[in-house]
Design brief:
The chain is mainly beta and 302 residues long. The protein contains one helix and 27 strands. The chain has one helix at residues 277-280; strands at 5-9, 12-17, 22-28, 31-32, 48-50, 56-58, 61-64, 67-70, 80-82, 92-96, 100-108, 116-125, 130-138, 144-146, 149-151, 153-154, 168-170, 173-179, 186-191, 203-204, 211-217, 225-230, 237-242, 248-252, 266-271, 285-287, 292-301. The strands form seven sheets. The chain has a nine-stranded antiparallel β-sheet, with no helix packed on it. Strands 16-25-24-21-18-19 form a six-stranded antiparallel β-sheet, with no helix packed on it. A four-stranded antiparallel β-sheet has the order 1-2-3-4, with no helix packed on it. A hairpin with a 2-residue loop joins β7 and β8 (67-70). The radius of gyration is 18 Å and the shape is globular. The protein starts with a strand and ends with a strand.
């Protein structure tokens, strides 16, 4: 068993596991900000690092620079390859202090992805919050397609079934990627106006069912996009912050999986690209040899 890393600063604490570099927990004054992840692999992907692509790739097949590649189908029900290649990978601890850690691994030309890409995951706990930066560097001789994502499952109280029905959610996004009901793959990008995905002002989650990527994000004057999940009874909750490195936010109301996880949290997944980007090329980042790209996000208590 790989030992967890506990990081603290001020009133914040985070627990990170080298198994997948996953964020197992984040707390403020003992209050959970995300649903705690169990040890080992978590099928719900809570706290996971998603690389070199987030979300689904249809049929595991894509073309890049004139060549066709085939990934392993990891979600048979949708016939897709889901959430990249490192969710089960051991990471090395490259650096560690009482409040920060850097973990690294190398994706070294596995089947269906014939490139060598180094990943570094930095977690920093400060008096203001918990932040993560994921950096990918192309160490191969050819340019490589890369998408990055993270999978925190936010909570505004105890993570119990149907808890989110009471909470409110704000996501300042003007557009949504609609998906097919059977395979959860993109079918079109539309304005959120007049749809259940219009969360630009604080809205009760109630019976909303969301498993969609939102984009055209609205930053504040500091260039930060702020997502808020709040318990209206006492005003407490969590704020997720992203900058321009994350033009997409995948929002998922946890409507599938074990009964104990039914609508227990809201996954808000910072992402560099939408679902199926390896095939569509939408916001897919292409790294030249030696080139790097990164994704940053932060949690703060409300």
């Amino acid at each position: 068993m790989i030992d967890d890393i506990v990081l603290t600063a001020g009133d914040y604490e985070a627990v990170v596991t080298p198994f997948g570099a996953a964020l197992r927990s984040a707390r403020h004054r003992g209050r959970d900000l995300i649903a705690e992840r169990p040890p080992g692999f978590d099928p719900s992907m809570r706290g996971a690092v998603l690389a070199p692509w987030p979300n689904r790739t249809a049929d595991g097949r894509y073309e890049f620079d004139g060549r066709t590649h085939e990934l392993e189908i990891t979600e048979p029900t949708t016939r897709t390859a889901v959430h990249g290649l490192v969710t089960r990978s051991p990471f090395d601890v490259a650096a560690q202090t009482s409040r920060s850690a850097v973990l690294s691994t190398v994706i070294d030309r596995p089947s269906g992805y014939p490139w060598r890409v180094r990943l570094e995951v930095s977690i920093v706990v400060s008096e203001e919050g918990v932040e993560q930066r994921i950096t990918a560097t192309n160490e191969s001789e050819e340019r490589a397609p890369v998408g990055l994502g993270a999978h925190p499952s936010l909570v505004a109280g105890p993570a119990v079934p149907s808890a989110i029905d009471r909470w409110t959610l704000t996501v300042p996004a003007d557009e949504v990627m609609l998906v097919s009901g059977d395979r959860m793959l993109p079918v079109g990008r539309v304005p959120v106006e007049g749809t259940p995905y219009d969360l630009r002002r604080r809205r009760p989650i109630a019976d909303r069912v969301v498993n969609n990527a939102l984009t055209a994000l609205r930053p504040d004057d500091e260039g930060i996009v702020r997502v808020a999940l709040v318990d209206p009874d006492d005003g407490t909750g969590v704020e997720l912050r992203v900058d321009g490195s994350s033009p997409w936010l995948q929002v998922y109301t946890s409507d599938h999986g074990p009964a104990g996880e039914y609508r227990h949290a809201v996954a808000v997944e910072p992402s560099t690209c939408p679902p199926d980007a390896l095939r569509s090329g939408v916001d897919l980042r292409v790294l030249e040899p030696g080139g790097s790209t990164s994704l940053w996000w932060e949690l703060r208590a409300l």
